[in-house]
Amino acid sequence: MTALLRTLFRSLLPAAIGLAAVACAREAPPPTAPAPADYEVSLTRPITEIPRRTIGFLDEGVWVSNELEGGRMSDAWREGDSLVVVHIAPENAPINNSAWYAFKVWSEQSRTVRLRLSYEDGSHRYWPKVRRFGSDVWVPLDSAAVEVAEGNEGAVLSLEVGPDTVWVAGQEMKTSRFFHAWTDELAALPHVEKRPIGESARGRPIHMVEFGAPDALRHVVLVSRQHPPEVTGTMALLPFVEELAGSSPLALEFRERFRVHVVPLMNPDGVDLGHWRHNTGGVDLNRDWVAFHQPETRVVRDEVLRIMEAPGTELWFMADFHSTRRDVFYTLDRRLETDPSGILDRWLGYLEEALPDYEVADSPSLLATPMSRNWFYREFRTPGLIYEVGDDTDRELIREVAVTAARGTMQVLLDALEERER
């Protein structure tokens, strides 16, 4: 699609969405219809800022604090003689039940502290992990130390604490600081570049990491962390990217023919502020890929369009890394004709053959949601998917699947290119 046609398409988009909404009411909507979404779904909404503070219970000599990057604790108070309530509220509501929490605890003397997680506009979703002072390792809290309330309304944690700080969070914490260090390490490789492509609503940088042939005509785009708590998606993205950027013969051959563009942290404000789902505009960024009301989605859209303006360029694959309650790949409905064709089925088939004991859950759909995958398809007819990783998926399995998926991406795309060139 030329730049002129893209401009015309975007200028007509509001009317097209209205027509698509009518088409959606039919029994069989045209597979290539624009997203039948409410154009106002991603308008900025107010959020509630939580005060950053440390709360002490002097009688017991116990303190809890949300003064950490990615922290989420709205308030804390004592309940009875032996229980501290940690209140967890979202940035705004209604909101997806991704009830994130993260805080620190310590005590003057070694003791067992009982903490009740109390949720507002949500329920207990993430099994608690702890990191102790002097260690970088997050460990799931033992099941004997966690009492989950009926209906997941909350949970009581029994935590051994002392003068050294204990961090408690719904998942292993990977905030801006982590991403800056990881991307800097990647960029130290001679064939990898890192550059800022824009800023979030609060002025935090959004970076793109790139590698592969600078003059390649075929491109791959990977994005992640539109939703702040979705850490297991990041755990898949990292080894996936590292395999593509690695030194295997397959990776070296792949980078001679393709160029890869990675935006590993799309929502730095939401991640660093400990949001459940949204950016500081109070919006789910993965519902803003039609209207582009939010600066974070506009930054990525504009940079991808700029990259694809070069004559002859093609976007052959995209993946957006997320987390949900189980491993699943949200692919495009096969009635949608992609360019190149057949990539998604080959990709899934590669995983099934390479990982016979792993359930490759394929969940195809049409373009009914204004999410990233659907924008890439409408703009470039790109074979794309939402790569979802389960909240509680074994961490070694996450890595194994991601490395295998990266190898499958390279092999499938190289095979398709060879077939096209024959």
Fraction of residues in H or I helices: 25-40%
The structural class is alpha+beta
Examine the coordinates and then state which fold CATH places here, giving the name of the CATH topology of the largest domain.
Aminopeptidase
CATH architecture of the largest domain: 3-Layer(aba) Sandwich
Q: What is the C-alpha radius of gyration, as a whole number of Å?
A: 23 Å
Provide the spatial order of strands within the biggest beta sheet.
Answer: 12-13-15-14-16-18-17
Mean pLDDT: 92
Low-pLDDT runs: 1-36
**Number of strand elements:** 18
Please write the string of helix (H) and strand (E) elements: HEEEEEEEEEEEHEEEHHEHHEEHHEH
Share of β-strand residues: 25-35%
Distance between the termini: 25 Å
Number of domains: 2
Question: What is the 3D form?
Answer: elongated
The level 1 CATH classification of the largest domain is Alpha Beta
Keywords:
disordered N terminus; Immunoglobulin-like; 422 residues; Aminopeptidase; 25% strand; 2 domains; alpha+beta
Describe the structure.
With 422 residues, the chain is an alpha+beta fold. The protein has helices at residues 3-24, 176-187, 231-244, 249-257, 268-272, 295-307, 343-354, 372-380, 395-421, and strands spanning 54-57, 62-65, 75-79, 83-88, 102-107, 111-119, 129-132, 139-140, 146-148, 154-161, 166-169, 192-199, 205-212, 218-224, 258-263, 314-324, 328-331, 384-390. The protein has 2 domains: 54-169, Immunoglobulin-like, CATH 2.60.40.3120; 175-421, Zn peptidases (Aminopeptidase). It is built from 9 helices and 18 strands. The strands form 3 sheets. It has a 7-stranded mixed sheet, with helices on both faces. A hairpin with a 3-residue loop joins strand 3 and strand 4 (83-88). Helix 3 (231-244) crosses helix 9. The protein is elongated. Mean pLDDT is 92; it is low at 1-36.
